[in-house]
């Protein structure tokens, strides 16, 4: 048994739910979950109950997070296509790391389906900070074309289909400024999981086929996919397993299991230890221009196995889709700017 030191990890895609849905998560519980999972810098998404689409709402989130967060947090600004005049006010804010666009239906009220509105957004976000898209299938084709037309830096969130891996590979081959992320749940589950896990396996994008999953692992190995993002999307059990007739909420928590799942991939011979650092630190830092965190590191034993429990997590929703799985490398200590925080 031997401990190794890694840099404090970066998760560029989390939903901490504050303000608006603090029965699921808040900045304190969500940032505790981040530290438990080895993340010292996280980027929070704007699809709150009242979406973060004005400078004022953004400032409210920043001040709430300052009061309650135990790790560093940055934010992605949101857009419904009607708030482009807010972009000037937020794009140079050092706490803003990107603009998030939802092109498919999911949790929240920010969907842009109208092509004219979408084009207006790409035109208006005149910034080197990436535009992040939730864009499945055909929507990905559209957003790649708009990013090219307006010369915007694009980050494609949580790719999940083989065809999307191929689209990104092609765009990169033509030197387009595009990056892509993948979520652990798409790497470890296929849609076959839904019959057993029911609502707990419902998320957006939905789980794919074995062929999709194989393409995601191949995309990770050949550099088509740049980073791992947890898409930590806490919902309480009643929302995932509603009474008969109810629609389960989309999304799964992931902050506390992502690193262990990546060391499982190392253990299984799919990726190397160096890949883990590249996918959870080096690339996220470079793509989103994350500030340095001096004297910040985590300690773990990458060969030590542990079983994901049923409960007892830091995340307020207190469940995991990975319960019962054997993972590797549980975080033993976290030091943030010289202070031991876990
Ligand atoms: O499954 C998901 N849950 N996908 C998303 O895009 C949003 C997220 C959420 O906020 O619950
Ligand atoms: Zn998300």
TrEMBL record:
Q: Which family does it belong to?
A: Belongs to the metallo-dependent hydrolases superfamily. DHOase family. Class I DHOase subfamily.
Q: Please identify the protein, giving its name as recorded.
A: Amidohydrolase-related domain-containing protein
Give yes or no: UniProt keyword Metal-binding: yes
> Matching PROSITE patterns, A to Z?
DIHYDROOROTASE_1
Question: Which cofactor(s) does the record list?
Answer: Zn(2+)
* Protein's GO biological process: purine nucleobase catabolic process
| One Gene Ontology cellular component | cytoplasm
Keywords annotated in UniProt: Hydrolase, Metal-binding
Q: Give the matching InterPro entries.
A: Amidohydro-rel, DHOase/Allantoinase_Hydrolase, Dihydroorotase_CS, Metal-dep_hydrolase_composite, Metal_Hydrolase
- Function, in words: Catalyzes the reversible cyclization of carbamoyl aspartate to dihydroorotate.
GO MF: allantoinase activity; metal ion binding
Q: Does the keyword Metal-binding apply?
A: yes
Phylogenetic lineage: Bacteria, Candidatus Nomuraibacteriota
Q: Where is the Amidohydrolase-related domain?
A: 5-293
Looking up Pfam families in the UniProt record yields: Amidohydro_1
């Amino acid at each position: 048994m031997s401990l190794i030191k890694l840099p404090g990890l970066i998760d560029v895609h989390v939903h901490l739910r504050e303000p608006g849905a603090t029965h699921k998560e808040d900045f304190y519980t969500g940032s505790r979950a981040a530290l438990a999972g080895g993340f010292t810098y996280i980027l929070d998404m704007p699809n709150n109950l009242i979406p973060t689409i004005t400078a004022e709402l953004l400032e409210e989130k920043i001040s709430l997070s300052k009061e309650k967060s135990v790790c560093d947090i940055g934010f992605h600004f949101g857009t419904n296509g009607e708030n482009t005049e807010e972009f000037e006010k937020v794009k140079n804010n050092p706490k803003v790391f990107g603009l998030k666009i939802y092109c498919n239906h999911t949790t929240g009220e920010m969907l842009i389906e109208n092509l004219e509105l979408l084009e207006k957004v790409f035109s208006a976000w005149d910034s080197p900070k990436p535009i992040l898209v939730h864009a499945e299938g055909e929507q990905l084709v559209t957003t790649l074309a708009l990013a090219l037309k307006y010369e915007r830096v694009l980050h494609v969130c949580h790719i999940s289909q083989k065809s999307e891996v191929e689209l990104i590979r092609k765009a990169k081959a033509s030197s387009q400024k595009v990056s892509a992320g993948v979520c652990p749940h798409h790497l470890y589950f296929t849609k076959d999981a839904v019959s057993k896990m029911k609502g707990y396996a419902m998320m957006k994008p939905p789980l794919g086929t074995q062929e999709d999953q194989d393409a995601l692992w191949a995309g990770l190995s050949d550099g088509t996919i740049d980073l791992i993002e947890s898409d930590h999307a806490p919902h309480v059990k009643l929302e995932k397993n509603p009474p008969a007739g109810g629609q389960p909420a989309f999304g799964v928590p992931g902050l506390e299991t992502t690193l262990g799942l990546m060391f499982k991939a190392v253990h299984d011979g799919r990726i190397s230890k160096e890949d883990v650092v590249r996918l959870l630190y080096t690339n996220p830092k470079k793509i989103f221009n994350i500030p340095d965190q001096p004297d910040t590191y985590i300690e773990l034993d990458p060969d030590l196995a542990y079983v994901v429990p049923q409960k007892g997590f830091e995340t307020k929703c207190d469940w995991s889709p990975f319960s019962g799985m054997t993972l590797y490398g549980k975080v033993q200590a976290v030091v943030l700017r010289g202070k031991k925080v876990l």
